[in-house]
Hints:
alpha/beta; TIM Barrel; Spore Coat Polysaccharide Biosynthesis Protein SpsA, Chain A; 4 domains; 28 helices; 9% strand; elongated; disordered C terminus
Amino acid sequence: MLGxxxxxxxxxxxxxxxxxxxxxxxxxxxxxxxxxxxxMNGISYSPFREGQSPLSGDVPTPEQIEEDIELLAxxxxxxxxxxxxxxxxxxxxxAKAHGMPVTVGAWLEKDLERNEREVAGAIRLARKYKNVxxxxxxxxxxxxxxVTVAELVAYLRRVRSRVWLPxxxxxxxxxxxxxxxxxxxxDFIAIHVLPYWEGTPHEAAVDHILERLADIKRAFPGKxxxxxxxxxxSDGRIKRQSVPSATNQATFLxxxxxxxxxxxxxxxxxxxxxxxxxxxxxxxxxxxxxxxDADRRPKFPxxxxxxxxxxWPLLATLSTALAILPALWLLGRMSTMRFxxxxxFAAQIQxxxxxxxxxxxxxxxxxxxxxxxxxxxxxxxxFGLVIVVLLTEGFELVEALWRSQWKRRFPAAAAPVEGFAPxxxxxxxxxxxxxxxxxxxxxxxARLDYPDFEVLxxxxxxxxxxxxxxxxxxCAGRGPRFKFLHLDWCPGFKAGALNVALRxxxxxxxxxxxxxxxxxxxxxxLRALVPYFARSEVGFVQAPQxxxxxGERAFKGMCYWEYAAFFHVGMVQRNERNAIIQHGxxxxxxxDALRKVNDWAEWxxxxxxxxxxxxxxxxxxxxxxQHSFGRGLTPDSLSGYKSQRFRWAYGAVQIMKRHWKALLxxxxxxxxxxxxxxxxxxxLPWFADALxxxxxxxxxxxxxxxxxxxxxxxxxxxxxxxxxxxxxGFKSLKALWLYATKVxxxxxxxxxxxxxxxxxxxxxxxxxLSGLLTSDRPFLRTPKCERLPPLIKGLAMxxxxxxxxxLLWAAAGAVALTLGEDSPxxxxxxxxxxxxxxxYGAALVSALINVVPALRPARARSLRVAPQT
Length: 869
């Protein structure tokens, strides 16, 4: 059998690996395009390398310019420069030694003093070097509104009067049509036609250039027209139908060069080398117009097939290697997993590995500024967490759906052991609880079908005597089996009260049971579960939480089914690895084990879960019986529901801060790998909620930046955006799938539970962040039997979420309206912001449902369902 299982794992891993290699191959299939064998007419040349910039004053050395020109000379007939400052004035002299003509550019901007130096420099170079064949006074100066037409004309006239070379100014084609009077002041028309900026698909780019060239020739008959910038970027943002990529750049360039040679066009390709310094000046796309990258490596060949990512075989191999070993290791240990489940999980591992490799590839092949490095690192950390959460969610899904056998299943009633009926001390902690509710709980305990037990009620920190005195009187009337303690003040939250109970319990008791004050237990609870303690290894036995009021109102029904998934799926899977979460109700604990680990922890507001982990660390075994032996009350309001979940999440962070070292693989304790896994990753979705809140704040701030300063605040890469959307989509699909197959509730209940769960996201996020930053938040009791709040109070319960929802909608709409027409990525970003708003909208919907008493669902049934098979 073991060999067969291993063979199945190998087959699955190989199938997925082959599929992964196939996907990489398909996405990078070669594109055939006519080769180019000639020498280019001209190319735009800026000599700055990575780390250099005309803005910072860090300029290229003469030796670096010499290296560039030696590299370009065999491929290009002449160069075009953009400035006569920042060391660029050296280009003409160095190019002269290589027999290359240079079209000198004088950069014009709002700084008049600088403009004077640029113009003087152009005149000087024209007079000094005979290889200077043209002068371009200004580059898109009118487009940027740096100068007026009159100012530009004055500069042109001055230069033309001082040199005997052709003089012009370079502007996009439409600027010439807008200012036809400029034609009288120049010796030739110098136009920029960059189809990318006009949203033209790369397949139509060459035709677009020829059409614009024809328009200019018709408008200015008799004037020579030079294409002083034509090109396509290899990376950057999508603009309408223009997609920057190395493949598209290579395809465009080969097509254009062949057409340009056939039609004898006068042109300069934009541009020789990538210019990383333009990231903060023109946005990300500005850095990627070069035929060579910033390290002077060619991006593509001029002949043969064009391949988008030439290194894809290496990337595909790395992603396969990254996935196949963990896949084989995991699949080899999933002996009870059906083939479909193994295939699904292996495919998810492989997809995650490929995403990681691709993200790393982008990180190593892109140019960064200090600000973009910071944002990239934040996005990578978030992306990594998204992948980890996706994998853990995927594992939970495949195990729930496709596991063929569960090894640790415990029936609802343990086999009785002759003569084994140890005394049980049942502890019922109360604090400001309605007395009638507590008395109902005690009446159910009085009906227990078990020979030897006591009930100890511990009321702590209840200042109103009208709440605890009726419970005291009830206990007094039930005889010696019922005891009541009232503590005016008790430190340590609920754990402090339970520790007081340990000191007042009958010394003969061997089992400690804890029941919340709102639970009505079944008579067979102890009789069915105590026999599990006949085995000395068992430290505690847990039955699920269940609720009896899920059918009273729609809101309670939503809460009821939201709770249900954890007890039907999460606890069942944890039980398989002896890693269950202990709850503070319907739990039985061996007294000696409790004493051995030093009782309840008063520093933690989720003392039950923390105790369970300590018992597991001590080597005790847990038992989870998937059968409801008691039913309590769901919170009456959204505020109560949120305060309960805040306590759980905050307590989880407290536990992780105290116990994280015990979960490390090399920690010396008795935790097995499954226990370490579940406690290490089980709360990751809550940490993801905290990250989601940070991302919401980041997204709102970034959206403002994108709208107001688009060149400095570009949209995150689609890879990261799709990761966010994928996580939300996968979790939604998983919830619907598991509710339908394991919780077995109707679609309406499933949707209601999903809304209720999403409504808690903001509360959980605040709890996690608060837990990371503090350690002494007070215990938050979950109120029961609250009055139905009025509408205003109901809406107030979700005011934070409502505000964030409206802000996200406003940001999404503003980004879509401002940038959506030009950028598909802006629409994706808007979609991400809308998805981010769903949990906040769910909180508002839950608040509204909470305050509408007319909404009554069909009565929710108990959590008594057939065990998973």
